[in-house]
């Protein structure tokens, strides 16, 4: 059985965090301030469906943070030309060569139900909201 991962831990891999607003909705916090596609302006349900929507919404970041990095590591460390591999092929190589960090993240991308909300529901983070108002 696969181990579940907290949303905070999943998001940190992509340099994100999240907060829960007074209305109960989840908002993403881009820790690097990139805010691609105005992702920090979007709100998500505070439940399993909302977590799945967040994981789907982060697709923009998967190539940069996961798949390009996996390709680079396979070529550098194992002399494997991974340039034309699709996500499933890359995932098989990740498992074959025991690249555990990537295996964990890709498993969560492919199976969003493995990611759960943190047990201590986060409160709104005022310091991040002030920065977003610039």
Mean pLDDT: 86
Q: Uncertain runs with pLDDT below 50, 5 residues or more?
A: 126-134
Tell me roughly what share of residues is in helical segments: 40-55%
Number of helices: 6
First-to-last CA distance: 45 Å
Q: Which class do the helix and strand fractions yield? A: mainly alpha
Strand content: 5-15%
Largest sheet: 3 strands, antiparallel
If you compute it from the alpha carbons, what radius of gyration comes out, rounded to the nearest whole angstrom?
16 Å
What form results from the Cα inertia axes? Answer: elongated
Element order: H for helix, E for strand: EHEEEHHHHEH
Numbering strands along the chain, what is their spatial order in the largest sheet? 2-3-4
Number of strands: 5
Could you explain the architecture of this structure?
It is a single chain. With 134 residues, this protein is mainly α. The longest helix is centred in the middle third of the chain and has 20 residues, at 59-78. It has six helices and five strands. Strands 2-3-4 form a three-stranded antiparallel beta sheet. The relative contact order is 0.19. It starts with a strand and ends with a helix. The chain has helices at residues 7-13, 48-57, 59-78, 87-96, 100-110, 126-132, and strands at 5-6, 16-20, 26-30, 43-44, 115-116.
What key attributes describe this structure?
134 residues, mainly alpha, two-stranded parallel ribbon, 6 helices, 49% helix, disordered C terminus
């Amino acid at each position: 059985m696969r181990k579940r991962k907290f949303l905070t831990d999943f998001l940190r891999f992509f340099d994100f965090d999240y907060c829960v607003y007074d209305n109960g909705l989840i908002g993403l916090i881009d820790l690097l301030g990139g805010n691609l596609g105005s992702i920090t302006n979007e709100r998500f349900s505070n439940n399993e469906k909302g977590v799945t929507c967040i994981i789907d919404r982060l697709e923009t970041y998967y190539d940069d943070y996961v798949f390009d990095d996996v390709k680079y590591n396979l070529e550098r460390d194992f002399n494997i030309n991974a340039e034309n591999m699709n996500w499933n092929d890359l995932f098989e190589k990740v498992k074959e060569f025991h690249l555990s960090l990537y295996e964990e993240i890709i498993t969560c991308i492919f199976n969003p139900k493995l990611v759960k909300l943190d047990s201590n529901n986060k409160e709104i983070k005022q310091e991040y909201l002030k920065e977003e108002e610039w």
